[in-house]
């Protein structure tokens, strides 16, 4: 399985009056880690578009376990779990200093043909090529 990790210094503008990250900002952190993961196999959003596909998020699940705090460093790990018919990515956000688990999440993306605007029921061959895997 492929994975990528990023470290984020929690900025002041992401927290509320209690110095806790507002829940909506976690989705932004997932996006940054997802982009890093996609770049790791040369299929980021620019590459996707150039290959004739867009990959919208069709499902997002998130479980808040702990709180990220202002000025803390957090690690966001994104792991590719499924790719045959969709991209399913699991995430784990932890506090760098303590190792404490803060958030678990997953996203699902499906391929849409840019020209026809139709959803693909199988991932296109270009994804398998980028991953260095045979197409099923």
UniProtKB/TrEMBL annotation:
Keywords in alphabetical order: Hydrolase
Membrane-spanning residues: none
Heme listed as a keyword: no
Family assignment from sequence similarity: Belongs to the 4-hydroxybenzoyl-CoA thioesterase family.
SUPFAM superfamilies per UniProt: Thioesterase/thiol ester dehydrase-isomerase
PANTHER family per UniProt: 4-HYDROXYBENZOYL-COA THIOESTERASE FAMILY MEMBER, NOVEL THIOESTERASE SUPERFAMILY DOMAIN AND SAPOSIN A-TYPE DOMAIN CONTAINING PROTEIN (0610012H03RIK)
Name of the featured protein: Acyl-CoA thioesterase
Taxonomic superkingdom: Bacteria
Keyword Hydrolase: yes
Database matches in Gene3D superfamilies: Hotdog Thioesterase (3.10.129.10)
């Amino acid at each position: 399985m492929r994975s990528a990790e990023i470290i984020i210094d929690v900025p002041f503008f992401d927290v509320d009056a209690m110095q806790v990250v507002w829940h909506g900002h976690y989705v932004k952190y997932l996006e940054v880690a997802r982009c890093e993961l996609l770049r790791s196999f040369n299929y980021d959003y620019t590459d996707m578009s150039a290959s004739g596909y867009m990959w919208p998020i069709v499902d997002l699940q998130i479980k808040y376990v702990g709180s990220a705090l202002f000025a803390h460093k957090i690690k966001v790990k994104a792991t590719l779990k499924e790719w045959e018919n969709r991209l399913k990515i699991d995430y784990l956000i932890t506090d760098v200093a303590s190792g404490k688990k803060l958030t678990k999440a997953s996203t699902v993306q499906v391929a849409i043909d840019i020209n026809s605007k139709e959803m693909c029921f199988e991932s296109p061959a270009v994804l398998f090529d980028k991953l260095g895997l045979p197409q099923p």
